[in-house]
Specification:
CATH superfamily: Exo-inulinase, domain 1
Order of helices and strands: HEEEEEEEEEEEEEEEE
Oligomer: single chain
Structural class: mainly beta
Bound molecules: magnesium ion
CATH architecture: Sandwich
Radius of gyration: 24 Å
CATH class: Mainly Beta
Number of strands: 16
Largest sheet: 8 strands, antiparallel
Distance between the termini: 40 Å
Number of domains: 1
Length: about 260
Amino acid sequence: MKKLTVLFVLFAACLAATASAKDWRSGIEWTEPKVVRPGEKYGDPPADAVILFDGKDMSAWNKEWDVKDGVITVKPGSGSVETKQKFGSVQLHIEFATPAEVKGKDQGRGNSGVFFGPYEVQVLDSYGDNKTYFDGQCASIYKQRAPQVNVCRKPGEWQTYDIIFNRPVLKAVEGKDPEVIRPAYVTVIQNGVLVINHHEIEGITFYDQPPAYKWHDERVPISLQDHGNPLKFRNIWVREIPDDNTKPKQTKKPYYL
Ligand code: MG
């Protein structure tokens, strides 16, 4: 009997709460999000993507590496390739495979990189026993941050990067390094796993000096590094995203309907 009474009181309380619940609205007047058709399956470009490589040719890039059977292979010694188009903040999808024939070690094994202007997301064969410094292994922000986990696939197997890059806002200062109004941020998902979570980029990812911001344009090319190893790339696309992630100005107070 006691149990029944408790249940009844709870039920009545729930009913009362439901009856008095009001619909709270933020008061922010959002503009209607644009409709964008997503790709058919994971990895396919959505309708608003800029295609950087779809298997045909490297016409979106400043020069050619080897293109065969829908795949780009780095031409060692030819230098890095960069997009003709320049970008600010972006979402990038790229697929890569480190060489199936394992050669070299440490930074000499399957090394390349995805650069947003001067900032590198490392590409390396970090599968198995290839030891290197952790903030230089695959999916690191070179010499700034090690990935949270190592989700590398075997040499020769296709891997994916989905990278969100928010450009820095720099103010030029005569004769000095620029003033950093807002640093760059980067998030990296490798093979569907979050490995770099909203890392605040500390500056250019130099090899031989600590990171530091140097002046560059708001929009920069995206480039792929030639580090002397014949990596493969395919299915590369990018979406421009808003530079500024702040909410619209509050035009009215929050209210209840
Ligand atoms: Mg590299």
